[in-house]
Amino acid sequence: MMPSRRNLLIAAIATGAIAFASTGSALAQKKYDTGATDTEIKIGNIMPYSGPASAYGVIGKTEAAYFNKINAEGGINGRKINFISYDDSYSPPKAVEQARKLVESDEVLLIFNSLGTPSNSAIEKYMNAKKVPQLFVATGATKWDEPKEFPWTMGWQPSYQSEARIYAKYLMKEKPAGKIGVLYQNDDFGKDYLKGLKDGLGAKSSMIVAEEGYETSEPSIDGHIVKLKASGADVFISITTPKFAAQAIKKLAEMNWTPLHIVSNVSSSVGSVLKPAGFENSQGILSASYGKDAADPQWNSDPGMKKFFDFLAKYYPDANKLDASVVYGYGVAQTMVKVLQMCGDDLTRANVMKQAASLKNFSPDTILPGITINTSATDFAPIKQLQMERFKGEKWELFGDIISSELSN
User: Fold this and answer.
1) What is the DSSP code (8-state) at residue 110?
2) 371-388 pLDDT per residue, tens
3) Which residues on adjacent β-strands are paired with residue 45?
4) CA-based diameter of the chain, in Å?
5) Structural domain containing residue 185
6) How many CB atoms lie within 10 A of CB 127?
7) pLDDT tens profile 78-112
8) H-state helical runs in 278-386
9) If you write DSSP's letter for every residue of 61-77 in order, what string do you get?
10) CB neighbour list of residue 230: distance below 8 Å, 6 or more residues apart
11) Are 267 and 400 contained in the same domain?
12) Cβ-count burial of 140 within 10 angstroms (0-12 exposed, 13-18 middle, 19+ buried)?
């Protein structure tokens, strides 16, 4: 008996429904790598909670508090963040040990915002060999923007070389006859800045009359400051971590040496550097920034900073809001959450990197107006803009235009 046209139609609809159902379920299928489930996303982190760079430990504490906030609000697409943070004391061998523990024992999906150029350099090859994201590292070394060679490693903040080129540009314009003395940390961090400074000065690199490298194991850098003053330098550039930046400011005041003083962005914190060094000793110091200064009343009515202050009040009341590292930790954690939201139900390591490389005009609450985060498959440098600032009273005052490191310097 021949099937009726009506029965054929019903059969066709049924077949289509089955096909649609199977396609729909395939589309809705969740994809996970180690460290992600229906209920949890495991994120690893390495911070110097002790040792010579312990002032940065507050970054990890801020991130933990921010993820607590996200979890309290229901998590990311229904999944809670399990944030596992270890101390490496700013020691590269210890960082390697902690990275292995996070990847092989804790089985995290990724390592996020591990701090320090030496520590991240020590784990970069391991992370890439394991194909585990080493995402938004807390260091501005230029080498984190090498997607071809290291596709699993990405920076976040502006590169040290870009920042140093901006200082070089400023000095060539404002103090072309200046004699520059440089204090730098004798490791990858300090050398990266120094290279950027020399590249920026170009033919005028002879403006640098003295360079003093220090080791993080040194209890004091006073001897280096004495040598730099003796060189006749009238510009002092401090490429240091917070502890040594504060020491340098104090020593300059003690010696009554008053050169034009530039401090690297990573040590421009009011709370952990300038206040301990003495506001009276810090007047007129220059730096460059991409984040809002929580000590500056101009941001009190800013919508983004209102969210930041509300977050501190509820989730991290013990935080020092004057500490730039707290502002930093919030901004980078917010960027991490944005990427995980973009991942949807595809929480594979490859998709995490794909989404991290797909950020378009993203502005965390704590970033300066006009500065946006942009990445692509060939661009692993999320923030590329800075603005010069001068310390006055008890806060930084921004001046000049926002400068892009992508412009030729």
Assistant:
1) E
2) 999 999 999 999 999 999
3) 85
4) 108
5) 160-289+389-404
6) 23
7) 999 999 999 999 999 999 999 999 999 999 999 99
8) 303-315, 324-343, 349-356
9) HHHHHHHHHHHHTT-BT
10) none
11) yes
12) buried
